[in-house]
């Protein structure tokens, strides 16, 4: 009778059952939440990755107040995603999915802890949440680490020194304490190197920095940890990628913390939100994982690059200020706003009888948070791995609170419904509190819903002003790179796809070219993807068809140096080697070429130009319809070259090889 009376109270709160679902048709089940027999694993937090690579590239050039609003949605506690963990790429000058991120040590005798944007991002995250945990992980390494070999483990002491210098630089130059360090993203690990990394960290007083291995699969790392007690002693967390909510017996046998250290990677619409809701719960329910980290934090890269819009939110238009707080942000909030690292999961089988899952967590001080998800199969498929079929039906769930939770009288309620049929979702709405009657309460659960029930009253959904409307990239864009103290090392909106292009002060030039943009990677890095053999940085609007690209260029490499300007660039990221477009090259030997590809194999025109190294020249590429022409220093050099494809694409600059070269007064129209 008490349960029935509690239910009648609830019916007033919740209203009638979902349309077409008679009360009799609901499957019913009971679940007990009790801490009397001890707690489950400690919760380590929910996070996201910036990098792997260049995923935050366009974020940095947003104007205020929009940039700060985006950062608030990601990091500010009790506001939006309220992330507990930020994982960043330790830039290594190589292509790591959507671009390259610069290393703090391009060359062996070079150290600079102000390159790129990850330092800035970590500081912005810490500013908003001083308790946020920071993780660093390399995807690529500068060439000198491998002494010419495409492998970082031949000289493990060199690699350890390089990584530890990044950790020390974070503290010395930015007052950032790195909490965790990884080995090599989704590539082989080396036991000797991991032990040496631990030794090197300790030698520099960095005992508090923990090691995650191996950011790939559960095996072979779990098996090796069981065999090698010394390695077992230095690895703190086993991090697996895209585990499909499952773990393996060996991982459990290690007794280590188990994390999904990269997951999600799914287009950030409602299905992406469903994927994220499901794995945030089921990574623990099915796989004992106590942290889940999304790739990626914010989709701040040109959308036509690989995995466009696979971020928790979208901010890919710094020129307009437009951004979009996507559904995954509010799915994240269901967990992050009502838990903290250091809380513990309750020991309970979190599978709902009608399909879906729940987790329950406590701070050990009487607070309780329950997160329920009922995502259907077709509305929650992640990009990987394939999702086996299962079914979810509307259901009534009754929870009995026991142990220290028996005295809980009311729970705050936050609710999301992903509206696939109707097209309108309701995200992270606060409902009336639910009354707990003699230690129990019941809920009617429909499909594709998320509920958070919690003793905490701190949840918040910001009612912020709308960002400006979207606008295409400016159709007339100039950059003269004349900036004495740039806030970032890279020029706004340029997205490096092989090589690294940095602001440069050309002290030897007394005239118009003191401030330039320079390509600085002169040896092929230890790669993660298939970097091109040429360097390239792209910019603009992928939909552009007709365009004129003009740039002053300066070849530094004698004899066989070369540079290009290009248009209609059709590819980048991990596919950069197969990039097509219209490329206008000039070489230090006084020749020029027009090619249809970055590799330079599809030659459309060639001849003499009179260009030489260590002198400034102006290249102009004009593409109209199916015809292209080129000017050198304002005079026609070639014309009427027929262009069949690509039909559209970005503008770009770059070099023939990994070589120094400079660019100035870039203009695309």
TrEMBL record:
InterPro entries per the UniProt record, alphabetical: Aldolase_TIM, GH, GH59_C, GH59_cat, Glyco_hydro_59, Glyco_hydro_59_dom
Keywords annotated in UniProt: Disulfide bond, Glycoprotein, Glycosidase, Hydrolase, Lipid degradation, Lipid metabolism, Lysosome, Signal, Sphingolipid metabolism
Quick one: where is this thing mainly located? other
Q: Where is the Glycosyl hydrolase family 59 catalytic domain?
A: 43-337
Q: Which family does it belong to?
A: Belongs to the glycosyl hydrolase 59 family.
Q: Name one GO cellular component term.
A: lysosome
Q: Which residues form the Glycosyl hydrolase family 59 central domain?
A: 345-460
Q: What is its EC number?
A: 3.2.1.46
Q: Which residues form the Glycosyl hydrolase family 59 C-terminal lectin domain?
A: 496-669
The reactions it catalyses are: beta-D-galactosyl-(1<->1)-sphing-4-enine + H2O = sphing-4-enine + D-galactose; a D-galactosylceramide + H2O = an N-acyl-sphingoid base + D-galactose
Q: Name one GO molecular function term.
A: galactosylceramidase activity
Which GO BP terms apply? galactosylceramide catabolic process
As given in the record, the signal peptide range reads 1-23
Spell out the protein name for this chain. Answer: Galactocerebrosidase
SUPFAM superfamilies the UniProt entry points to: (Trans)glycosidases
Q: List, from the UniProt record, the residues annotated as the active site of this protein.
A: 186, 262
PANTHER family for the chain:
GALACTOCEREBROSIDASE
Q: Where in the cell is it found?
A: Lysosome
Query: Keyword Metal-binding, does the record have it?
Result: no
